Each structure stands twice: as structure tokens, then as C-alpha cells.
Amino acid sequence: MAKILIIEDDTTFAQILEVFLTKNHHQLQLVETVQEAKKIVAQQEFDLLLIDYRLPDGTGLDVLKTVREKGIAIPIIIMTSFNDVRTAVKSIQLGAFDYITKPVNPDELLMIIDHSLSKEEEQIEPEHFIKGKSAIADKLYEYINLVAPTDMSVVIQGESGTGKEYAARTLHLQSKRKNKPFVAIDCGGLSKDLAASELFGHTKGAFTGAISDKKGQFEMADGGTLFLDEIGNLSYEVQIKLLRALQERIIQPLGSTRQISVDVRIIVATNDDLIKSVQQGDFREDLYHRINEFKIQLPPLRERGIDLELFIHHFVALSNIALQRNVTTIADDAKSLLLTYDWPGNLRELNNVIKRMVLLSPGNIATLEALPDEMKMAIHQPSAINSSDLKAINEVNEKTLITETLIKVKYNKSLAAKLLNIDRKTLYSKMERYGIQ
Predict the structure, then answer these.
(1) What CATH number should be reported for the domain whose range is 126-297?
(2) CATH for 301-380?
(3) Contact predicate 214/197, CB 8 Å
(4) pLDDT greater than 50 at residue 121
(5) What does the pLDDT look like over 379-425, one tens digit per residue?
(6) Interhelix angle for 346-359 vs 307-323, to 10°?
(7) CA 308, CA 314: separation in Å to the nearest integer?
(8) How, if at all, do strands 214-215 and 201-202 pair?
(9) How far is it, in rounded angstroms, from Cα 330 to Cα 314?
């Protein structure tokens, strides 16, 4: 049983969730606003947060940022009824475990909650990964094979979901340190004080809440590899301490005068441009040059060419095993959508979408209906519009609003026309004009 906080201002929907999740042996608590959520999270401990995106006094991302800034590492799931995959991807970049769109599918919600509570990260683990056969994949692994046996510090740069931690684990497993620890830290979820404690450790009484001595991750990784994910989020003060630790191979726990020698290889990852951060004064130039002995750029999924279809079939096979399904075929229109979509969330998003598709496909064939509505909408929106063409912009916005409304009311055209404040004849005319089926 998990203690779950639901942050949702639609009281009817929140109560439905409460009844459903209580039947599935979870303990629920409900609040309606960002401020209520921040207050209760500061006072109580929860195993998981289920947050609506749009709230009366802000958005679910406001809660997400606050929780992560406090160093609370519990899983967070964002709910949105706006079918906006960009918002969903942004929530994952900020530290959400996953997202789900309304109307919520009960089986899908339970699957996501179970995975998050068991800390089954939606990332690609080495034993379940295939390299791909594109030229860009060949070049990537040529670089990995070249630098892995060395002790050089490596910067792995790429968009969210491209598999940066997988690349770091691969470097470790192909190094002479492979029999020693691989320790990963998500710097994006650490406050300034917590980051220093996590990296270097602390003694009892070093700060409020330090009730016992704690080893830092540098010491835990001694002899092996320390992976610092989203290093650009470290505060300037922690960057100074990190630079000293790397240069002198010595750490000093918070509250202690004792110095500890450490031998670690540093691999860092970022989806930011660290050079730009250096220029803006947010990242130390000397630290940047210390960690950037070799850089690996991970390509986004949209640039992987023939690899995309390979990944799709691979994830279908994994999902069949995990969900006890037997999907052997993807319908042509569904496959076309999967191959045409630009995948802003990259491999992580693809993995999630395929898993949901398999879950919603009880037979052998996965159909278009098993794919998220936001994907179908995104694929039909023009990719580029002249920003000065006001008519074109208004038409795109109108088409999007009509499509979202139809999805919301499950294509009840009378109700859609009423919500849009137009008559049914006008709605039919606009649907025909914009090619909305």
C-alpha cells in the first residue's frame, strides 16, 4: 500500500480517483491548489504525487519544481486534459516520473503508478538495449568504444530521453572499472545543501536533520564511476567544491575536518549547452574544462533514421513480456503515425507510448486507437507557419481547439458545438475545412 497525494481541483474526478485507487489498496489524500499541495508536502511524507497540470492558483509544474528543489525524490505523475505532449515532456525534464492524459484509462494509471512505486525507471537499461544500425549509431558507438577504456572525464550531451544514463553505464561497463561501483546522481533534483551532502557526505549534526553520519556518493563510488546527471543544475558553491574534489581527489564531508582520498572517474550529462551557461556566468569555466576531456553528443530519435522502426519492434517485444500481451502486428495507420511523429521525448517517450499501446491491445494487432490522442493531433499540425501570417496562425489555433474539444467529448458533435459556442452546421463546415474526421 502506498500513501498517495492527489492534487486536483475537479472534486468529482478526484473522488473517482480516490475510490478507484483505494480499491487497489492505496491510501489517498486530496488537495485542490498549488499552495495547499506545497503546505502538506512540507508537513507530511508521501510515496507518490498525482498532480493535475492546470490548477486554480498555478500549474502542476509549480508543485513539481518546489518538491524537487526541496530534494524530495518521490515519484510524481502529471495529469493533463490538454493533450499537449510538449507540456508532458517538459514535466519529465523537470523531474516527473511520467504523465497521463485525461480521460484517464484505469489500467494505464495503475501501470504507471506500479512502475513508479517500484522505481522501475522509464529508461533503457543496458541488458534491454539495442544499438541501432544507422550511420549515426555506428559513429556514436565508435566514440564510446574509443573513450570507454580510458579514465578521461566525459560530457554526454543530448535532449531529454535520448539515453544519457545508458551511455554512461555502457562507458563504465566497457572500462577497467567495470567491477567497481557505478553511482548515478540526478543533480536536477537536489537543493544546494542536499547536493553537497549527497556528493561529499556529512557528519551527525552538520545541519538540521543530519541525525547520523552519512557517506557521500564520491566515497561510495571509490574505484568506480560517478555519473552526474544534469550537472548544470548544481549551484555555484557546490561547483567550487566539486572542482576541488576532482583536482585534488580529496573530499571533506560537511561538518568534518577529516579529508578522504577518492579515486573516481567522472561522467556527466546535460541537456543544456554548458558553454552558454559558462558565458552567462551560471557554470564555472574551470570546472567545464575539467570535466570536458571528451564529449559525446547523443542524437535525438528523429535523426536516427532506420533505427526508429528497430526500436519500435524491440519495445513491443519487451512490453509483450512485461504486460503478458501478444502483439505481433501494428496496423498500417498506427505504424505510419509512429514513424512520422517527431518524438520530442525521444527513446523514453517511445518506450512509454509502445508500452501503453501494447497494454491497450488485448489481441494480436495494435491499432491506431491504442495511440495517444496528442500524437494524432501533433502529426496533423503544420510544422512551420509564417509568424506574420495572422490568418494561418488563427486557423491552426481554431483547428487545435476544435480537435481537442471533440476528443474531450468523445466526438459528440452536439456537445462540442455547445462548448465551442457555435451551431452544429458551423462545426461541420469547419471540420470539413480542416479535414477533421
Answers:
(1) 3.40.50.300
(2) 1.10.8.60
(3) yes
(4) no
(5) 665 544 445 555 555 666 777 788 778 777 777 788 888 888 888 77
(6) 50
(7) 10
(8) antiparallel
(9) 13
